[in-house]
Amino acid sequence: xxxxxxxxxxxxxxxLKSKLPVIVDFGxxxxxxxxxxxxxIEELSDEFVGKVTVVKCDVEECPRTAAMFGIMNIPTVLFxxxxxxxxxxxxxxxxxxxxxxxxxxx
Length: 106
Description:
- The protein is an alpha/beta fold.
- The protein has helices spanning 11-16, 32-47, 63-68, 95-103; strands spanning 4-5, 22-27, 53-58, 76-81, 84-90.
- Helix content is 35%, strand content 25%.
- The two termini are 18 Å apart.
């Protein structure tokens, strides 16, 4: 499953109403640390296919969503379960940390 590129209008349907846990990567094309996180997020979407929905929100294309969750720094990755954010990571981090947070969601 590929990473879903999100818009503000899709957020409720894709993330908040998802039956699966969701990870949402908030970033921007001009953000250096975001570029380090992006390949990790893509790997996770392949490794957890059918278990997790993986979403990417460009903060410039999803300003309402970024504001709704108080995204002040990018990259920020939010972990959702049952439509609610249950964990987050701000800044670049190793893949292992993302995997540990994901595994706690099951």
